[in-house]
Amino acid sequence: MYYHKRYKALQKKHTGEEANYFSGMPFVERLRAAGRRGVRYLLFCFLLCLFLVLGTRRLFEESRESRLKTTVVKSDSFRKQWMDSQMLELIKTTEKPGEFLGLYWLETAFSQEEFLNPYDLQTFQKLKKDWEGSQDWEAYRKVCEALWNDLTYFPVPEPSNGVEAGVSFVDSWMFERSYGGKRGHEGTDIMAAVDERGRYPVVSMTDGVIRHKGWLEKGGYRLGIVAPGGAYFYYAHLDSYADLEEGDSVKAGDLLGFMGDTGYSKVEGTTGNFPVHLHVGIYLVLDGEEISYNPYYALRFLEDRKIRCAYPTE
């Protein structure tokens, strides 16, 4: 009895236009009308979903494309040159890692996202097809290759005559330095296990031409070499030089001089203001502006590519 009264009350309440429309129709026609309404509703839902999917995809593509701008190679995130251990191991199997790394950094939004693809040659061939049609791809690729494709040898050789000469280095990119004013460290320091100036030979990491030689207040005795791809490799705090002059050509592995502790003074020849080490810097000149890049991962790439030579024994 209760449900019957409740049904009657609801039936009386449903007196709108839609109820009048259906009440005058045969049962079959009411079913057909309801079906047409359902089809229209499903069609609306499908079109809405399609719009959302296409819109989301377009936003994703625009977000990816926005990573590849000519100015990105001057950004802090690109200059940091960060990569995970799997990528580092992959590039150690290649001789020309620049393009692979360029693709890797684009896919990870320059270390802000996880790399979700397999670390193999086929993956990077596919990624290249995805990116090479972008407007600024060629200019971006050339920068990556300039920084990486000329690298050949680690700058401190391995002793061939049993001399103790270990080295170590950490990622000290943009760590604070105070000499000459507060600034970030634009390089990597290769520290000598034996704190003895003139003990460790220093060799060129690349082929190239000597652009600068001589004393700098911060860098002490230094050499600057321009590699074939255009990157500038900077070796600082040397104790002494090999027989080289500005304008001379060098090959990767050629002796440049010996590790020291010169610098942090306007007085040429000053030593002893810090432990013996080699400061390595990597630079590019882009649009007339000198831009520094983190050498740490380049040195990690080269740490198993050392030449062997006899060290001084006295």
How would you portray this structure in words?
It contains nine helices and 14 strands. The chain is of the alpha+beta class. The strands form three sheets. Strands 2, 5, 6, 7, 8, 9, 10, 11, 12 and 13 form a ten-stranded antiparallel beta sheet that branches. Strands 1-14 form a two-stranded parallel ribbon. Strands 3-4 form a two-stranded antiparallel sheet. Strand 3 (176-177) and strand 4 form a beta hairpin. The protein is elongated.
Largest sheet features: 10 strands, antiparallel
Radius of gyration: 33 Å
Find the CATH superfamily of the largest domain. Glucose Permease (Domain IIA)
Estimated share of beta-strand residues: 15-25%
Q: Give the N-to-C terminal Cα separation.
A: 113 Å
CATH class identity of the largest domain: Mainly Beta
Annotated CATH architecture of the largest domain: Distorted Sandwich
CATH topology of the largest domain: Glucose Permease (Domain IIA)
Question: What is the count of distinct domains?
Answer: 3
Q: What is the total tally of β strands?
A: 14
Structural topology:
Blueprint: H1 2-13, H2 17-23, H3 27-67, H4 76-79, H5 85-91, H6 98-107, H7 121-131, H8 137-148, E1 158-159, E2 167-168, E3 176-177, E4 183-184, E5 188-192, E6 201-203, E7 208-216, E8 220-226, E9 232-241, E10 249-250, E11 255-259, E12 277-286, E13 289-293, H9 296-302, E14 308-309
Helix pairs in contact: 6-7, 6-8
